[in-house]
Design a protein that fits this description.
- The structure holds two protein chains of two kinds.
- Helix content of chain A is 14%, strand content 25%.
- Chain A has one domain: Alpha-Beta Complex (Sulfite Oxidase, Chain A, domain 2), CATH 3.90.420.10.
- In chain B, 84% of the residues lie in helices and 0% in strands.
- Chain B is mainly α.
- In chain B, helix 1 packs antiparallel against helix 2 and helix 4 crosses helix 5.
- Chain B contains ten helices and no strands.
- Classes of the chains: A alpha+beta, B mainly alpha.
- At the A-B interface, helix 1 of A face helix 2 and helix 4 of B.
Amino acid sequence: EKLAATANPLYSSKVDVTPYKSATTYNNFYEFGTDKTDPAAYASSLQTRPWTITIDGLVKKPQTLDIDALLKLAPMEERIYRMRCVEGWSMVIPWDGYSLSKLLSKVEPLGSAKYVEFISLADSKQMPGVKSSIIEWPYREGLRLDEAMNPLTLLTFGMYGELLPKQNGAPVRIVVPWKYGFKSAKSIIKIRLTEEMPKTSWNMFDAHEYGFYSNVNPTVDHPRWSQATERRIGDSKGVFAPKIKTEMFNGYGDQVASMYSGMDLKKYY
Amino acid sequence: MKMLLFLFALLPLGRLVWLGMSDGLGANPIEFITRSTGTWALVLLCITLTMTPLRLITGSTFWIKQRRMLGLFCFLYASLHFLIWLALDQGFDLDAMLHDVVKRPFITMGFLSYLLLVPLALTSSHWAQKKLGRRWALLHRLIYFIVGTVILHYWWHKAGKNDVNIVEIYATILALLLLCRIPSIKTKVQSLFR
């Protein structure tokens, strides 16, 4: 289903975007299974309507918004972002959405709010992977409030000019392009503003391997593999194209580095 | 029969070539062929180690005669697995490679497994077997150790995303196969089927 969006020239791309087929058949979405091809195979059982997001916690105006209201809340933009997975591969994807800050401003965060927590749907009737105990369900992610308010953080409803395919986190997800892909929570049903740093799924699984921040950083290796390079999926140079160098903050340093000035990013990985 | 086994062991490689030519390797072909060759090396290791229990059960030496070829196929897939990592993942960057081997336990175990397989493959001929005599059997017991390093390699690889079910299955199969080699169990198995 088509989704009308205006291309934002600030986020165009010099390199080719990843083929639609690759971006929709090679996914990590454990609610539908651990294999990369599982989400495309099993996500059809996900019911994306009706759908609501409840926003509460430390806000002046807590509310529950219907997906249709969310779609109309702000003008839809198309932004081409690089997406770097913690596993060492990357894609270039045209997303459709608007800055999460538009939604957060509407609920008016209180002065005491420091973090934003995102909770994904975990319904074993629609999501076969939820029956396994690989991680603790529901999937949860989090950002610092300033990260969530950064204009780059996109509340996302579509990709490639269409409504999000179910395997890509329909009907609504976030996209945080300077962090590893797992920070970009899919199929969100709850957003909560908190004073304490929220618990996040992969960090709960192994804090040593997955930090709360998880900013893309070629100088901080994952304990099991190097993060210095990445394999670009669908590289136009062909299957045997060499890996490319991973950039600090996935190349978005100009927009985000100032949020971390003075922080030891080796410690806060 | 031997020819049939030979062709059967070539099938996984043939499949990869066919998928490669028909654009069937998915979004990340390098990852696909890395994992596929690794998996088939493991499967052939299991099959190779099944020959001794099959001899115990059937009393036929036919199985032992197939072992060399199956073991060499295990080595072939392990070599492809290793070369893909060396060439396509590390880009022949020896520094990066050594760094990985030293720093990352799962790479260390994979590298060690392959390193230890090499002398077994090199001494697989009749000639080497005769030349080495009793030391040959001793040397080839290395495979029991390799079973351990291989499972650790696979385990630590999958543990990063807590996806170890499949590894547990392989570990159980290999553990059972090794148990059959313990003398007391060996005689029990033999008497059970006589």
